[in-house]
């Protein structure tokens, strides 16, 4: 069950059918999501391009208001990230 390689890991449906989790499973109410596409991880890119993509992801990230216990300020022009913990 705890396999990092997604190609070797069992599905959520298989995990819920496992005896260890069977008490939590409800076969009449088990939504199924689309498979996760991780093909981007197989791209052969230079390190600088990966850094650029990660930075873009950080800058464009919009946290859900429910999870706003940390304030994140991003200044794209200065390429830095500031974190402020809130009470």
Rough shape? flat
Structural class: alpha+beta
**Major β-sheet strand ordering:** 1-2
Major sheet description: 2 strands, antiparallel
Beta-strand percent range: 5-15%
- Count of DSSP helices? 2
Can you give the mean pLDDT? 77
User: Into which percent range does the helicity of residues fall?
Assistant: 10-25%
Rg, Cα atoms, Å = 19 Å
The span between the termini is 37 Å
What is the H/E order? HHEE
Task: Catalogue the unreliable spans.
Answer: none
Counting DSSP E segments of at least 2 residues, the number of strands comes to 2
Protein name: Mitogen-activated protein kinase 14A
InterPro entries: Kinase-like_dom_sf
Keywords: Kinase, Transferase
GO molecular function, one term: kinase activity
Descriptive report:
With about 90 residues, the protein is of the alpha+beta class. Helices cover about 25% and strands about 15% of the residues. It has 2 helices and 2 strands; from the N terminus they run ααββ. The protein has helices at about 10-15, 45-60; strands at about 70-75, 80-85. It has a two-stranded antiparallel ribbon. The two termini are about 35 Å apart. The model has no long low-confidence stretch (mean pLDDT about 75).
Keywords:
87 residues, alpha+beta, two-stranded antiparallel ribbon, flat, Kinase-like_dom_sf, transferase, kinase, kinase activity
